[in-house]
Amino acid sequence: MRIDAHHHLWALARGDYGWLTPALAPIYRDFDLSDFKPLLAASRIEGTILVQAAPTEAETLFLLDIAEGAELVRGVVGWTDFDAADAAARIETLAARELLVGLRPMVQDIADEDWLLRPALAPLLTAMAKQRLVFDALVLPRHLTRLIAVVDRHADLPFVLDHCAKPYLATGDIAQWKQHIAELAQRSNVVCKLSGLVTEARADWQIADLRPAVDHVRNCFGPQRLLWGSDWPVVDLAGGYAKWFAATEILLADTTADEKTALFGGNAARVYLGKRGRPAP
Question: Which CATH superfamily groups domain 3-273?
């Protein structure tokens, strides 16, 4: 099964997408599965991982309801309030929904750059591991050293690095990012999501602009620890689904058939669906 390991769906009237404003005109509208299915069919993708886009549990429940009614969606990466006094109980309650496969605090938007290092977070990550959930790390390059420390403390919790930690491709200032990615990749409980790069590149990006980052994560993580994701519909801000999919096929052209099978679905099934979610047929 080919799996798109990262996409979103939203309904503006829900009102909890604080980052989604009219300034982002190409994606400032509702997006549902009827919009998505033709794109998936064109790329021969049969399953998806649906990821939160709002920092509310209400949105997570909205996504879980969609997933439970759609065979296409294999699992949901949701959100909960990790700063709440009853956060551990919240995690347990959400985990009762079998299609919840992971949680994603929106670390990139949290003002406290040391948020990942808070002592209060540790028992919550332990609770996630107990519930067989994955931690999706939505971080920026400046957070990588903190993430490494957290990963080292929670060897039993799988971590997925979203969007390769958003390297600064538009400026080409990626030397420090490369150093920290190489260090993070030494931790076997971390995999990297090959997604979100085009929105970090210049507006008229070319494949050559993406290659330094793609080649680096390939070299560091290897084909068994990379997951392909579209980041749709956000990818519509930078060329769209088909252009990104075609670019990755070129960037990964020298991989073997088995490696492509892993990158475009097998790894996502192992990481996200091995213990939870809707199993691949």
Answer: Metal-dependent hydrolases (3.20.20.140)
